[in-house]
Amino acid sequence: MADYMERGATTEKRIKNALTYPIIVCIVAVVVISVLVAFVLPAFTSLYTRLGAALPLPTRMLIDISDWLLHYGLYVLLALVAAVALGYFYIKTPTGKYQFDKLLLSSPIIGRITLLSELSRCCRTISLLFRVGLPLPEVLAQAMHGTSNKVIRQALGGVQEELIRGEGLSKPMSRRKLFLPLMVQMAGVGEETGNLDNTLATVAQTYEVEADDKTSSAVGLIQPAITIIIGLLVAFLAIALVSAMY
């Protein structure tokens, strides 16, 4: 558990470090664009109006966007703040937390990383507690308490109920898509050989390695993606202003 917590803390720190630069760039970009929309573009718009020239499409689009933001930007900002606040309080409810966890597991890239992390923690918990001699129903109860994801917790609760009815561990897992094939198969092997702690420890290690690899890949894509988005935005502004001058 200490090793798992240390890996989790290291991963979280790496993600925060990777997000620091893009967040700063985004904040600066928002400030610069706000200044352009509020002060620079109106001056250019009045200049273009006095000249009476036919403006190119990018410039017309930029002027329309600027006018719309000047008239409705405050309302949009208030609506976003209200939506974030409502979403935050909804997630705090049991139903909202379940829906958020379900959305998190089904989202691209992040969903796979979250699922692997949760399953590796589950396998590690079952392996450790089974090794010290706790009965499987109690082991699953502790695994349920060890996860903050309500979808995973509900799935483990269903497995626990069917386990108590005498259906074993791997068979109930196989009926739920959240439990990946490797985990189900190795749980079955562990049940047949009486070596459940070692088989699930192997699964946990495999999932941890895959989760680390996918996390590194996702973190590596953040900065280039932000750079491309900001670059396209700046290019659009430059083309809109310079093409109108020509």
In short:
With 246 residues, this protein is mainly α. The protein is built from nine helices and no strands.
Write the layout of secondary structure elements.
Blueprint: H1 2-51, H2 57-91, H3 94-106, H4 110-131, H5 136-145, H6 150-164, H7 170-174, H8 181-193, H9 196-245
Helix pairs in contact: 1-2, 1-9, 2-3, 2-9, 3-4, 4-5, 4-9, 5-6, 8-9
The termini sit apart by 65 Å
Tally of separate helices: 9
Shape: elongated
Fraction of residues in β-strands: under 5%
Q: Considering DSSP H and I runs of 4 or more, what fraction of the residues is helical?
A: over 70%
Order of helices and strands: HHHHHHHHH
What's the average pLDDT?
Answer: 84
**How many extended strands?**
0
Taking the sheet with the most strands, its summary is:
none
Q: Rg to the nearest angstrom?
A: 26 Å
Structural class of the helices, strands and pairings? mainly alpha
Query: Low-confidence segments, ≥5 residues, pLDDT <50?
Result: none
Can you describe what's shown?
- The protein has 246 residues and is mostly helical.
- It contains nine helices and no strands.
- Helix 3 crosses helix 4.
- The longest helix has 50 residues, at 2-51.
- The chain is elongated, with a radius of gyration of 26 Å.
Features:
mainly alpha, elongated, 0% strand, 246 residues
